[in-house]
Structure of F-box domain-containing protein:
Amino acid sequence: MVSNVYCPFCGVILLPDPYWDGPETPQSSARPWYARVRGIYSTNPAVDHIKITGVGVVRGRKTLHAPLDSNRVYGDVAFDALDEWRLCEQSDSQWCFGFHESCWKMLILRLNHGRVGSLSQTDTAIPEMVFYQLYCTPCLEASIFHFGHDYAGAAETHKVFGRIQPVDLNSHLYADPCAISVMNYPTDSSSASEELGSSRGRNLSHGNSTVGSLAEVGERRYRAFRNLSTELLLEIFSYIPFEQHLTLRLVCHDLAVLADMSMLSRSYWRSRFLLGQEADFVFPCLSESQNWFRLFFATRASLKAATPPLVNRKRIRDLLEPIASLVDLDSIFRRGPGGVDYCPSPMRGNNFTLVDIEGFQAGPRLAKVVGYFSGQLAYIDEDCPLQEGCRVLYRKAQPFMVPQEEHEKRIGISTVKIGARRFISGINILPSDEGNCVGRLIGYRNPAAETCIDVPTNLFIKVFRVAFCAEGLVGIQLQYDNSASSRWIGVSNGPGIAQGTLQIPTRADQYHLLADIDRFKIVSLGLAEWIDDHQSSLHRTRSDVKEPFHTPSQLWVPHAPMHEGLLVSLLLPSEPPRAFEPLSNIDFGGPGGRCLMSLVRLDFHMTSYPHPLIGIGYHYADGKSVFFGSTGGCAISIPINGPSGERISAISIVEDNRDFYQSEGLGGLQVSTNYERSIILAPLSYRLEASVTPIPSLPPGRFITGLVAHQKTYGTHFIRIGIQSQFCDEPSTIPHILDRECHLVPDNEIRYDEKFSHFINGSNSGNYQSYASLKGIRKIQASAGISGWSRPHNGISGLKLEYYNHPSPAIVGQWMNELEDGFDISPDEEIQSVTVWIAPLGYSSESPGLAVGHVAAIRFKTTCARSVTFRSPDSHTFPTGMIRNEYQRCFDEDLTAISWIFNEASDRVRAVNSPHRNWRPRLLVPEVSPPFDQVQKLYFETRNDDTCPERVVTIEAYFRGRAIIGLLFVYRSGAMASTGDLDTNSRQAVHIAQDDNIVGMSATVAGSELVEIDFEVEHSASPKCQRLSLAFEPPYTPETAVDYGWRDVWCKDRAAVECTTQQGGSDKVYAAPRNSRLMGIYIGCQRFSSVGAIYEPDISH
């Protein structure tokens, strides 16, 4: 698939030619600035032959059509005469990096600003330095350059593949940064007057002003500056930004007088436009005469008014600064990196790699690589853009003699800023007295950004700690033989940064630093020791620098495991080693496993196929939490009863084993504990088909104290997992467990939830299931969402259930922010009903009209007539249109479990009804199938504890408007059964005599609402039947109700069916099944207007 391409300077799309398919030719139509594109290309990267194209247009998303002459534009020549370049990816003909013409103009303005005469760089220096910055920076998917920032908001418009985001002409991002002129600014002083709040009579026009009399100020100088002249103070003020200048006036009376606007000379206002000052992005000609005062305040007023071109100009100027600053350092990098050349040797040892190091009179010498770290090296052709990681252009080595006791050493570390990040560009090893010895430089020395580390006398450097990201070396720290350390130079941690340790050989032999380098920075660092001298005379055969030649040492995030006796398993699934493969050290056990006794929860953040695991977190009883990766996706939690002795006993990897959709890596995890629990963390779509591979089992006496995980370089996906294990200080205890099945998830419930996921978009590969028993519950707690996670703070994200017969709780949904109040349940109390309110957020992409959303509240009622409603404290009222789902037990069924399915966007919750062992079979008319077969049953005849039948005597309907929203059955003994919402004052009732039987019924739906229920009652003393109706405004017919839907009728027998008239085309008439009798009514759990009849076979037949 062809990717979209974005400007490396401003991050806005290189818009394909808007007139490509139009009748007008390129010569006859002006293009918007974001469609006017230049290219920079190399005819031979090895010899720095870099050129700039003329202004062209993009066609087919990836092809630049532009003149070869950089001084011409697409309209100057016939379209067929324009040259073609492939943008940001290799081509059979030629390729280039593309950027907007306006951005290029801005860069030239920045490089030329404030300089007298022409640019200090040569005509070739600017293209070369710009080209190699792009050449050595990854362009992800040949679309977006990875400079470590979000392009000041433009990243929100990025879409690598598919249709680009529409251009928003109201957004400053699409305003031409060059569509301004300093001559267009207002010339009055109103903006300055408003901003300064100046009094009437103060002279704000400085066109011809001079510095006022200073004599009277000199007597009142603030004493902190009494030794400085007034002229010097005013010169100091010229370096202070205007915002700070305003604050300075508030310090004291003396400074208020001295810093008054009338005291500031014209040079102060001109200085606001110098490089590094707040208005430098205007780039006026500093040698011309200007009313600098008015120009400055006009610029501030325009920014305050958010004038789109000026706002975008300032944004782009800030983004260009690192690129321009690097161009200014051309003289440093043009000389090439310091050090002697080295190359891979064709001779290899059994367990080590040999390299040839040049620079010796007797010829190259062989050395053994003893440690090596790198970024994600891309072994690609020189004539090819970089799409990820970093590239090697030079391989350099430098002797690094172990210092003798009488010598001090100083190590200079140079850095360079590329985009938003700073990298190590060079390492210079020299004695403290630099005059006695020439330093040993490897890489590039940047004196303006060099930090020196003085190695204390009599100490040896024992360890080089290094920090790498995918693009190269970002930090260095020295550790000495007394365990003291220098400070970090550069960056030591952060997103995408991993650490490693280079151990320095202990004997006082000579060894070398090895560095692979691109045009600006070090991309790998290693150590090599000499081997036997007689091998140094071996003939060296140079190898291609693009080929990998040694296995890197291990990098870790945030640092390497250091506990004594710790073992790290192999990572699964197995993959070939990579140059940059940092491992996350997810250490939840601590030294000796002492933290396991306070571990209470593990979180796994999951998304969709093919690499669903994107984040891992762990939590302790004291509230401390640690996260790795992303907190996006679905947060699936595993509670761990660490204080009582529960420990993780095994971890297995899950792979999608479906024939048609093979997994390419880690598809999920299975986590088991010593409390005989096992939880599978994998998408619902392949829970049953997945293959489970255990990570190698632990040696006796060891416990899992952590994980080891490998993330993809660009992105947060974990693709391999291993375990850490230790001998623990305290053995775990396993209590007596009475109910071993309360944490089991039956396969049939997984199959059912695959169908139930219809309510959250069933084809979504990021659907997950959580399941827990409702039997033997001791306590229920709820969790609200967290802003920035997958669930908002004003909803319920999950539940935690604690049990009497198992020491470990269960979590359904996503556990995020625990609510304070829980609900305790006594041992003889059971769950009577579960009601769930869903806040709709949109509609299903698979089933038109089906609303999907998040859980807003959950209510539990118990058999002891107690209830609790969990809702976020931030949610005060239910929004309109709330979806209400209810599940309840009845005399022949119990609520035995709860299942919560979810993805990143929506939830659905259901309770599981299990029939009693001696239950009689029931017939539902019409029959319902999953996922619509979940119903609530209200019986016309029920049984008490003595199994004596008890008939209903009153049926009440509860209304909201015309809609029936609840039903209540009252039995002869006063017992009641209900369904739906009874919280309304509008209701109707019908009464059934003691000896009467309900033999038929009907239900009418208008729109999506149940509006009428009729019952056909047969009197014992009369053959006639009576019709009892519950309706707010009867009758409902196609003639009286515009939105009439249908009317379903359940008749006593087939003869009654023939006598029943269907009023609409959607009406249905049902006859009672043969040899059965009407026992009750069912209401759909998901939709209250889904009504049916319950029949029981007549055992007398």
